[in-house]
Amino acid sequence: MTALDARHNILTILESWAGLVAEKAGGKAPTRSVPHLVGFLLRHLEWLAEQPPAAEFADEISALRRELLRTIDPEPGESPALTRDCVVAGCTGEITTGTGTGTANSIRCSSGHTWDVREWITLRPLIERRGKGADV
What we know:
single chain; mainly alpha; two-stranded antiparallel ribbon; 5 helices; about 50% helix
């Protein structure tokens, strides 16, 4: 799961619960931002805790917490690898990011090309150009 997926899930679930609270307890749900939604839910937490779906709310918030922790600090082997064609002209190797590739200071393609950490930022435009069919 990517950080964007986790963010989307967080917003969706918080927005759903805020909508329920606004509908049942009265009031208007806040704008779709995590700080506003969390603040709204915290202000109504006592009311929400007394409602029949309180256990479901607690379970979903707990699941979001676990999901977010797995996203920012995955267990070994849990992080999905992203694979792209090597940016070096004529190379048929693949650059792989994720678990088990490179070291803390370098990244490499399967054919042996390597980039230091300070060079990583240059890879994205090269990968995008390569994806559009331009020679690199």
